[in-house]
Amino acid sequence: MEQVLHGQTAIVTGAGSPAGIGFAIARTLLAAGAQIAITATTNRVYERARELDATGKNVVAIVADLTEEDRAQHIVDTVMQRSGRIDVLVNNAGIMSLAPLAKTLVDEWDRMIDINVKGVLHGIAAVLPVFERQKSGHFVNIASVAGLKVRSGNAVYAATKHAVRAISEGLRQEVGEGIRTTVISPGVVESELPRGSSDPETAAAVKELYRRQAIPADSVARAIAYAIEQPPEVDVNEIVLRPTVQEF
Predict the structure, then answer these.
(1) Which sequence spans correspond to the domains of the chain?
(2) Which tens digit of pLDDT belongs to each residue from 46-91?
(3) 9-237, what's its fold?
(4) 75 class by beta-carbon count within 10 Å (0-12 exposed, 13-18 middle, 19+ buried)
(5) What's CA 3's distance to the chain center, in Å?
(6) Which candidate in 46, 157, 210, 226 is catalytic?
(7) Which of 38, 150, 206, 209 has the greatest number of CB atoms lying within 10 Å of its CB?
């Protein structure tokens, strides 16, 4: 891959799974020449970093829970000490717990709101001052086709992804020239998301849907690389991508 991101530094949250979207994004941006910081809530992020770059020169791993504001700031402080700048923040960390509202899985609702919404806000709060000082930077926020359409069983998850799109549009309007904002809204893509549903009936249906329709996580990574690689005056604000066989 052409080194079009040489000299840039990117943070990718939620990159702890070798089969996940975050890891695919990090791998793609690294191949394009960027230095990468990857985060996850567990120590497995260190193994992912070694897989990406055994030398440790171009990838740093940080254990952090983005639901805690101070941990988001810790990520930024670590990257700034290492690289002196941040060019891209990919707010990828998220969970999907699907079930009918009548199941009243309140703890899971709270967890989705904390990770999918507050985690994005905490990332923005920590990185935005850096972008403002630099007068440049690129927010990439991972939403979902669920942020475009609500279906039975996904009301709370869809609400969190509608929120990501709303936050991103407000951010786009508020930031100054030189700071870009992109929303990526994937459909059924290979990831750990299907494991998030504790309701047995819903979990079985979701896993079967992903087994039949999921496209590779690299599909999302390539879309993000496309948005980042545009000239600095071009702001690709939203990309929606689905399997060709997906109905919604």
Answers:
(1) 9-237
(2) 999 999 998 889 999 999 999 999 999 999 999 999 999 999 999 9
(3) Rossmann fold (3.40.50)
(4) buried
(5) 22
(6) 157
(7) 38
